[in-house]
Amino acid sequence: MKSIELLGKGEEMHGRAYIKLSADEIEESIKKLKENGFNHFVMLSCVDWLDKGKFELVYHMWNYEEKEHAMLSVDIDRNNDVMKSMSHLFPQIETYEREIHEMYGIKFEGNNRLTPFLLENWPHDPPMRKDFDSKKFVKQMYESIPFIEGDENEGI
Amino acid sequence: MKEYELFIGPQHPGITGNMMYHLWVDGDTVTKAECNVGYLHRGFEKLMESRLWMQNIPLVCRICVPEPDVNEAAYSMAVEQLMDWEIPDRAKYIRTIVLELARIAAYLMAIGSYAGSIGIYTLPQWSMGDRDYILDIFEQLTGARVYHIYIWPGGVRWDMPADLPRLIEKTLNYIEERLKLYDDVLFENRVFFDRAIGVGKIPCNKAIEWGVTGPNLRACGYGYDVRKLEPYAAYDEIDFDIVSYPDLGKFDAHEAGDVYTRMIIRRLEIEQSIAIIRQALKKMPESEHILKHPNWLRWKVPEGYAFARVESSKGEFGYFVVSDGGLKPVRVHVRGPSYTHGINVAEKLLQGANIADVSQILFSLDICPPDIER
């Protein structure tokens, strides 16, 4: 795959290139892919690996000519969740970073628009983190939780 | 001149759903626009992490109200990638038909609401009425009108009833006839030309970098369509051409990437969808409609990362699904086309626009807030 050749590492996963990078390499790698035809930035995803103590940021890029999808993955420490902003490379990254900042609490240095996005006046923990317990939160907020059939089996 | 702030939405007929644009205006001209969303956030992505793989199907369809089937298809395709499943041929054709019917229904809604935004109030009444005939087909096929919960990992839930192709053909003929009236009222109407040509232009050299996809990208002259780039369902066996600027058939081509071209592309793609459905009905093979599936309650999906993309009426819909080999997904992230169109692109296009054009620019981008907020 072209992206794996360009960056010199990575593996194929279900027809997509999955490339593990360090936080320092990511900016240069996105620039390099962008110059080589990966000009559509699809999205920026965040995965919370609570048991491994890390957040994984996945930058998805697409090449229209080669019809190739590259996933650039970066791990960041859960206790030191700071990342450099990439919004200068593609304008829509600004919005994705804004959402991840709100939902996971990751701080993006260099993004000036980390303002409330979907949640307004939210004083609690970032809700998409795995250690945010939705049921406990509902109980505390509303003092009761509606009975759901089969609830004791956690959704089964 | 003194600058004023203006709020359009969330309860405003000129806005594309439950969202708000905060505008700064100087006289009639918008100097700055900011998108404000959050009225529809239902936390689906968080919910999906605590539900079984199968229980997520009734959730994902609610991410896009006018065209729910693309979500079911993209989620199912991502799960099929992780499971390494190849779905039966008949299921591929049924999926194609369902997705194209949903596309027509979504386009009818988009065209109707666009016409309303420039003051042609006849068309919204007609197109919403005509959309109901497509919902009738869905009701017979799936039992539901809006949220079908029909496309499942491994195929589709039920086989197509034997008499349904006749109803589909009858409806398609009807819609083809109605399109002529749509042309008279909107697409060949002087009011449309005067209002739409040259307004809300996406700079074509920036379109891909800004993340513009779907009909909005094809209006800029790029013939990119996920159905051709990464064929899913039965699209690789069906013969169709991508409609893109400047080849607009019987309609005149004016400027690339403006409101006019975006709407004409949608109008032409209705005809294209009708042709695709007719081909798919003709070619549909006899086989099973779903794979033999595991017990849903104990169904574990192998570890890995999968990404599936689908061409919706609004642009590229993508599902990023992560599994750790358990009963529930670790993460499901949805890429909605409106995420870029509704925020970065709209904010840039609205700068310098006239207040009266704000609404038609937003409707011509076909922004759908549920897929921004999930």
Task: Walk me through what this model shows.
The complex is a heterodimer of chains A (156) and B (374). With 156 residues, chain A is α/β, with parallel strands linked by helices. Chain A has a single domain (2-126), classed as NADH:ubiquinone oxidoreductase Nqo5 subunit (Beta Polymerase, domain 2, 2-Layer Sandwich), CATH 3.30.460.80. Helix content of chain A is 24%, strand content 29%. In chain A, strand 6 (82-84), helix 3 (93-104) and strand 7 (107-109) form a beta-alpha-beta unit. The radius of gyration of chain A is 18 Å and the shape is elongated. By secondary structure, chain B is an alpha+beta fold. Chain B has helices at residues 44-48, 57-60, 69-83, 89-117, 122-142, 164-187, 190-196, 214-218, 226-229, 259-283, 338-350, 355-365, 370-373; strands spanning 3-8, 20-26, 29-36, 151-152, 155-156, 304-311, 316-323, 331-335. Chain B has a three-stranded antiparallel beta sheet with strand order 1-2-3. The two termini of chain B are 40 Å apart. The A-B interface holds A 13-16, 18, 39-43, 45-49, 58, 60, 64, 67, 69, 71, 90-92, 94-96, 116-120, 127-128, 130, 134, 154-156 and B 37-38, 41, 43, 45-46, 49-52, 55, 81-82, 208-211, 213, 222, 224, 229-230, 297, 304-307, 309, 316, 318, 320, 322, 327-328, 330-331, 333, 335, 339-340, 343-344, 373.
In summary, what is this structure?
The complex is a heterodimer of chains A (156) and B (374). By secondary structure, chain A is an alpha/beta fold. The interface between A and B is large, with 39 and 43 residues.
Describe the SSE topology.
The complex is a heterodimer of chains A (156) and B (374).
Chain A: H1 2-7, E1 11-13, E2 16-21, H2 26-35, E3 40-49, E4 54-63, E5 68-77, E6 82-84, H3 93-104, E7 107-109, H4 134-142
Parallel strand pairs in A: 2-5, 6-7
Antiparallel strand pairs in A: 1-2, 3-4, 4-5
Chain B: E1 3-8, E2 20-26, E3 29-36, H1 44-48, H2 57-60, H3 69-83, H4 89-117, H5 122-142, E4 151-152, E5 155-156, H6 164-187, H7 190-196, H8 214-218, H9 226-229, H10 259-283, E6 304-311, E7 316-323, E8 331-335, H11 338-350, H12 355-365, H13 370-373
Antiparallel strand pairs in B: 1-2, 2-3, 4-5, 6-7, 7-8
Helix pairs in contact in B: 4-5, 4-10, 4-12, 5-6, 6-10, 10-12, 11-12
